[in-house]
Design brief:
single chain; 218 residues; alpha+beta; Glutathione S-transferase Yfyf (Class Pi), Chain A, domain 2; 4-stranded mixed sheet
């Protein structure tokens, strides 16, 4: 198999790449990384010296690839203006939804006497601002930037999935809620959740996950 994805099944940024691959039914070898294992860490750093996941490695071309891989579903639009919008909202979800969410989740993993209450309050407030921006953006859009799924939606799904455990959507944010429901019905999203489910026990805000995500369908 040409593609190897170095990942952890709980990691939201890994989910983003997995969603893109699943949308295109692109075959890949998942390689779970234990950064505490010197051999696993060395293998990862051989491809990406930064030592962070996800890393997608194309063995056939001998190249490390960032986040997306070409397939029949064009997740980066061909139109330059739409491509810029896709990248804008892709970064929006990474920086302004995933970032604050990870601040709160990471803080929960700290010892009680080392937690950053002020920083957590700031992060939760930032999520509220991001949600309101998304509510406006989705006033006339089915997906993040229009009628077709893009890389921005691959970033949105895991970001919003975990962000809800930190700050649930407000009752007034009906467009955002409906958008997340559309994302959660994608076959690719369900596959990612199936992959992650055995590891949810390690997620510090597991009790805030919706019950439908904790049990397999059927």
């Amino acid at each position: 198999m040409d593609l190897t994805l170095y990942l952890h099944p709980l990691a939201s940024f890994c989910h983003k790449v997995m969603l893109a691959l699943y949308e295109n039914d692109t075959p890949f070898e998942p390689r779970m990384v234990d950064l505490g294992d010197p051999a696993a860490s060395a293998e990862l750093r051989a491809h990406w010296p930064v030592g962070k996941i996800p890393v997608l490695y194309d063995r056939r071309r001998g190249r490390t690839i960032a986040e997306t891989y070409p397939g029949p579903v064009p997740l980066i639009p061909a139109d330059p203006e739409h491509a810029l919008q896709a990248r804008l909202w892709d970064r929006f979800f990474d920086l302004y939804v995933q970032g604050p969410m990870q601040k709160v989740v990471g803080d929960r993993l700290r010892p009680e006497d080392q937690r950053d209450r002020y920083g957590v309050d700031e992060a939760v407030a930032a999520l509220g601002t991001a949600y309101e921006m998304l509510e406006r953006q989705l006033a006339s859009e089915r997906w993040a930037i229009g009628d077709e799924l893009s890389i921005a939606d691959c970033a949105a799904a895991p970001a919003l999935f975990y962000a809800q455990t930190v700050r649930p959507f407000a009752a007034s944010q009906t467009r955002l809620s409906a958008y997340f429901e559309r994302l959660s019905e994608r076959r690719s999203f369900k596959r990612v959740i199936d992959d992650a489910r055995p590891y949810f026990v390690h997620f510090p805000l597991r009790d805030a996950l919706a019950p439908r995500f904790l049990q397999a369908e059927g």
